[in-house]
Amino acid sequence: MLPAAFPSVVAFVLGMVVGSFLNVCICRLPKNESIVSPPSHCPHCDSRICWYDNLPLLSYLLLRGKCRRCGTHISLQYPLVELLNGVLTLSLFLHYGATLSFVAFFLFCSSLVVITFIDLEHQIIPDEISLPGILVGFGFSFFLNGHTWLNSLLGILLGGGSLLLVAYAYHRLTGNEGMGGGDIKLLAMMGAFLGWQAMPFIIFVSSLAGSLIGITIMLLQKKNTRLAIPFGPYLAFGAVLYVFYGDPLIRWYLGLSGFYRG
To answer: Is residue 78 located within the same domain as residue 168?
Structure first.
């Protein structure tokens, strides 16, 4: 008889294994390289990585963060992405159980991990993830309980349209590009998965977090207000927060405001 914790362990391991593949996407998508071929290899000496050196998190610890062949240091990003995706997958499983909602949000959150790390390093959000993500999120809306295709469609329009309006207004007022097209498509993808109701929450949380952290960075680095700060990670933070705590947080806020009495 399997122990009660076995499904949770499987979910965590699954998340880390997929996290290993996410690392490939993070490294190759910005370079327009195939994520299928060639197989995993050391970016320094190009030697192919054997399966026993490609075990999520474990291989990094056993190799002490170095390539077996050339001894070059392996970026901490690799185990961090694997561990982060493992924790997210376990949390989703504990929250939703073995349901279609778990599958949908597993794909959604894994995509956000890739987008976050790519945007942090390259300040781009690859269309290869956000555009198919819009279609996938809309497709799931036909099968998930409590989520309709109309909510998803309105989420796409509200998510993408709201940032498009902000970008247009900022450009008209300042003459500078303030919001990238990647952010617009990313929020449209979030609207597809989460519906229009999530958009105000995500925009508020991401704007608040981005403002606080951005101002802190500018003060510490003594940069001017035109410092380019990627917004994708803050949108991803707001979306993940909504996946787990959106409904109770909104009810709590409405309760404080007197609009909700539960």
So the answer is: no
Cα–Cα nearest to 116, from 134, 129, 104: 129
DSSP string, 220-260: HHT--TT-----HHHHHHHHHHHHHHHHHHHHHHHHHHTS-
Instruction: Quick: pLDDT tens for 191-239.
Output: 999 999 999 999 999 989 988 887 887 777 765 555 567 889 999 999 9
125 plus 255 within the same structural domain? yes
Cα distance between the two ends of the chain = 42
Residue 90 sits in the same domain as residue 168: no
Distance, CA of 84 to CA of 102 (rounded, Å): 17
- C-alpha span between 131 and 247 (Å, rounded): 26
C-alpha distance from residue 111 to each of 3, 88, 93, 117, 211 (Å): 31, 12, 17, 10, 24
Q: Which residue has the tokens 């370079």?
A: 31
CA-to-CA distance for 69 and 167, rounded, in angstroms?
Answer: 48
In whole angstroms, what is the distance from residue 124 CA to residue 176 CA? 17
18 Cβ neighbours under 8 A, 6+ residues apart? 85, 89, 110
Same-domain check for residues 111 and 50: no
Q: Alpha helices, DSSP H only, in the chain?
A: 6-28, 58-62, 77-96, 100-122, 127-140, 149-174, 181-194, 198-221, 232-257
Give the tens place of pLDDT for each residue, 81-122.
999 999 999 999 999 999 999 999 999 999 999 999 999 999
Count: domains in the chain: 2
Query: Which residues, 6 or more positions from 74, have their beta carbon under 8 angstroms from its beta carbon?
Result: 60, 63, 65, 66, 67
Whole-model pTM over 0.70? yes
What range defines the domain where residue 53 resides?
1-98
Q: How far is CA 110 from the centre of its chain?
A: 6
